[in-house]
């Protein structure tokens, strides 16, 4: 019955969301460089080349990637076709856990081919009267703060009632296009520790799937709706996370209910999740995001909770500083439980990429943006696993953008964990050229 339901609903559901999530940031600038092939043809294109070289305590690493994006949009903007393909190459001079032998009871570590070509996005979108339908390979976030951040094959549907947003999704997750699998993941390049537990992604259509539906209430959107009837620009670089003046004066920025289910032949049992989120504005310009999710699995029931305190400071010079501190914890209902949501891709830390299975987690960051032509920024991040291996990672990042096309990011990282024989260091420089 589940398989039949999946095949029927795959044509209809899912949704897209603004960037208000806690997952690892993608540093790609492809979306801001789309341009028409000609004035007479409604086809737009953009490309990006990435090259990276890094040195770790005991190895050298490098990777390269090329991405091409194509979009066909009718003048009415009701119909849109989008494609994004990529090719990549990578190297790690030291053999990792999957080469040296598996730790007892741990699954294999995903290591894509050294040279790999794949599809990052390939979808059709129809949008009319605040209803949006998207079908194909696409990036998905389900409207919460940590549960899902994945690239999937399926369909999405979003209905906007002003302040009320109703979203549903049903998709398949496959190694050919999932975020940290064969297409564009970089976790395998570092490969310091074995990070594959509960990272279940099927190889065939139907093996690993999920269904999600979210009901959100954003009071400030009703005000915005009166003054803004423009279509949503999917490739805009604007991040509306902290809102406008109207949002800042409202105590409740967002509240919502979530239902989420994972199913398929690769899962040992059906997994159900339900919970609630809230986003509130506090005195002195602080913003607080909270989420509580219940995991319903036979003999593996637990609750995970998340809170994230955010503060933005805008200086007279035009500079801005962002402070964040967040904590994720777990309350077990059954004994010896794991939170088994498979597609979160939270990945805190440039190297360790700590995920939901590593809770309780503490992470904090401070980022300062300079009001300069080169868009210089500095960012310091900390992530720490409170229990188990007591893993800690500190990342310092400096980035800039030159000539409107070249983005340079330098990362310095320090890592410490009971799972390692020694402390690790990383220095990595990444160049992205988009045109």
What does this structure look like?
With about 425 residues, the protein is mostly beta strands. The chain is about 5% helix and about 50% strand. The chain contains 5 helices and 19 strands. The chain has an 18-stranded antiparallel barrel. A hairpin with a 2-residue loop joins strand 5 and strand 6 (about 130-140). The chain starts with a helix and ends with a strand. The relative contact order is 0.14.
Question: Low-confidence parts, pLDDT < 50 over ≥5 residues?
Answer: 1-22, 97-108, 229-248
Give the N-to-C terminal Cα separation.
48 Å
From the spread of the alpha carbons, the general shape counts as: globular
**Structural class, from secondary structure content?**
mainly beta
Number of helices: 5
Radius of gyration (Å): 21 Å
Number of strands: 19
